[in-house]
Amino acid sequence: MAKTITIVNQKGGVGKTTTTFNLGACLAQAGKKVLLVDMDQQGNLTYCMGHESPDEVRATIAQLMLQYIAVDEEECRVDDYIFHRNIGNIAMDYMTCNVEMASVETALVNAMQREQILKLILDEVKERYDYILLDCGPSLGLTTMNALVAADSALIPLKAEKLSSLGMELLLKNIMRVKRRLNPSLDIEGILFCAVNKTYNEDIKTVHEVKERFEDAINVYDFVVPALTHVSHSVRDQQPLVVFSESGIKKGESPVADIYNQLAQEVIENE
Ligand SMILES: Nc1ncnc2c1ncn2[C@@H]1O[C@H](COP(=O)(O)OP(=O)(O)OP(=O)(O)O)[C@@H](O)[C@H]1O
Ligand SMILES: [Mg+2]
Predict the structure, then answer these.
(1) What is the DSSP letter of 91?
(2) Whose CA is closest to 224, among 161, 172, 148, 146?
(3) How far is the CA of 253 from the centre of ligand 1 (A)?
(4) Is residue 271 part of a domain?
(5) Residues 6 or more apart from 236 whose CB is under 8 A from it?
(6) Residue 220: inside a domain
(7) Does any domain span residue 11?
(8) In total, how many domains does the chain have?
(9) Could you say which DSSP state residue 249 is in?
(10) Measured between alpha carbons, how far is 83 from 96 in angstroms, rounded to an integer?
(11) What distance in Å separates the CA atoms of residue 182 and residue 271, rounded to the nearest whole number?
């Protein structure tokens, strides 16, 4: 049975998609069967998986959720919505998303079992995978709620800046509310600092403040993801960091890939 991890933070641009894409690749490289699910109407993870124009993709998780809401689930074939990509020696399955996810947010409001639709869908394929990673959009709406209900744990990417750490209280409150009311087995996998500028004192100060504030209750990873320009280049080129190369970075030698490999090891050990 897969462990489902939702990568969540209502704050935008904190590294959710980059973390989902690279953690997925590292887990796959470690021999795990991985399904990535894009839950964001921006379709950024869909782009990372090789689709230049996410809005032109037809078989999206948004379409599937709309089908589940509108018709009998027996008529929906989840397999028709699962894509596959090989990148070097890395094989991953994934589900796409695009602007249609905005309609799902509206359709969910009056749907029966509105917080459970994604869980019902993923339950059908869960036994085939070791890990299912959900890349949430920057909101705490009903689609993110669905991701929290479908998940075994929440992984929280965070930027080392004041506004990002301020949003943590709201996020944790929401996660705890979902745990109490809808998904008692939901855990917090950990807080991962992303795009940290290690030469910038303000960044280091924020990392220490957040550690002190939350460390007793929540796992805050000891390692942080440094801010390095080749990370955004790898996203642009739709390549996970473990296989990415450009001038100055040889394939397999990205220091950020090492960090995501450490994260993958911690996730595996945490099972
Ligand atoms: N470690 C890093 N170093 C440099 N740039 C990074 C790093 N991690 C992420 N980025 C860049 O920061 C931007 C935001 O990252 P990402 O898209 O992963 O965030 P997000 O939380 O998914 O955003 P959104 O909330 O819009 O979905 C992207 O352009 C990405 O390439
Ligand atoms: Mg994103």
Answers:
(1) E
(2) 161
(3) 20
(4) no
(5) none
(6) yes
(7) yes
(8) 1
(9) B
(10) 8
(11) 22
**Ligand 1, pocket-test mutation among 6, 11, 17, most atoms within 8 A of CB:** 17
Structure tokens at 99: 């602007």
Q: Whole-prediction pTM value?
A: 0.97
CATH of the domain at 57: 3.40.50.300
153-191 confidence digits (pLDDT tens): 999 999 998 888 889 999 999 999 999 999 999 999 999
75 lies in a domain? yes
Tell me the mean pLDDT in the region 80-95: 96
120: its two tokens: 């019902």
Pairing verdict, β 83-87 and 90-95: antiparallel
pLDDT digits (tens, 9 = 90+) for 185-239: 999 999 999 999 988 888 999 999 999 999 999 999 999 999 999 999 999 999 9
Which of 107, 121, 204, 146 shows the shortest CA–CA distance to 8? Answer: 146
Tell me the C-alpha distance between 49 and 137, whole Å: 16
Any residues with Cβ below 6 Å from ligand 1, and which? 12-18, 40, 42, 44, 137-138, 194-195, 225, 227-228, 231-232, 235, 256
Task: Give the residue numbers spanning the domain of 94.
Answer: 3-266
CA–CA distance, 210 with 165 (Å, rounded to integer): 7
C-alpha dist (Å) from residue 40 to 143, 257, 270? 9, 24, 27
